[in-house]
Prior knowledge:
The chain is α/β, with parallel strands linked by helices and 424 residues long. It is 38% helix and 21% strand. It has a 9-stranded mixed β-sheet with strand order 2-3-1-4-5-6-7-8-9, with helices on both faces. Strands 10-11-15-12-13-14 form a 6-stranded mixed β-sheet, with helices on both faces.
Amino acid sequence: xxxxxxxTIAFLLAFSARAVVRRYSPKIVMITGSVGKTSTxxxxxxxxxxxxxxxxxxxxxxxxxxxxFTILGVENPWNNPMAWISLLKRTLALLFLPNHYPNMLVLxxxxxKPGDLMRILRIATPDAVVVxxxxxxxxxxxxxxxxxxxxxxxxSPAYALAPGAPLIIPLGGPYxxxxxxxxxxxxxxxxxxxxxxxxxxxxxxYEEHGTVVGMEATVVVGNERGHLVVxxxxxxxQILPAxxxxxxxxxxxxSLPDALVALEKYEPPPGRGRLFSGKNGSVVIDDSYNASxxxxxxxxxxxxxxxxxxxxxxxxxxxxxxxRYSVAEHERLGALARDAADMVVAVGIRARAxxxxxxxxxxxxxxTAYAAAAALPDIVRAGDVILVKGSQSVRTERIVKALLAHxxxxxRLVRQEKRWGKKV
Length: 424
């Protein structure tokens, strides 16, 4: 009965959202891929807002429910009957009353299981598609026949593009380029490859007064060169969303100087490599939003390269939805963690493989984020740099919260709403 009710609500939301799109005909930019969708969506929306009246997905609203919520301009009503009534009123007003509706929607789209993106594409057809990284072992692979099947679904919005429409892809991996060749789209690219439309080089930590406060890179577009700075978060993964936004700017004839000025206002979303002051003079890298093999690997590289660290501590929770790849990927990343950190802390049953790898690195194990949050503040010392990362349901943001030096930073963490606080 519950599944029937959910399917009925999804159908009604899709019908309403599709009707709104048909009435107002906004341009639609879709953000898809495995790693960094939300950061890329935010960066793209920041740049495009210099020329268009933009609405973009809230947080990570990328499902068959989240996309209609964005199109309708409402928050998730969850279990609030009054909020659902407000949603109905909002929908009727959009369909039958004059409205100043956005002329561009930036929609993050994602798939947990086969067919998810097909359902979303029935609601809205993209005018441009931005693809983020497509790794060897993508998240949600547990629900698919193979990693290739996941990548095909994630790339599917590109196949819906009209001939000559912009398709923005990352260079540096084989998958996106190979799949883009099957389309009739106008392909633009971003990354460190020389042939990228937006060429990124000299990527490094950005410091102010001897303190790391973000990332910086040189970007080249055609004959133009610029300096890109992303404040508040660290890692290569924080530069790539901004580079994707610059490639999108090229697609919509926004100059490099204008796009770089716009990106000065861009702030990476919570739980994605965000920097905080930790207890006892430590530094916390809050990467607690989610975890996949590609994202954990990149986070460990960032931790290993972080300057001015007395000790490097990797606190790693379970990576979920990996199916038959789970054991091998946890063991593989455990070896990388041993090389990157002076101490590796495992949180969860699957994460035990992170510390089962032989080596001299100090290690600790905890069954839950609650247990880790209670114990870890006592071991933190001045100069420690602490990476915290895990899949969403592990709730590693609770560990971040326990390690923060300033309570006013709690509100800047991921999943701090009341509805999350009630969940175990």
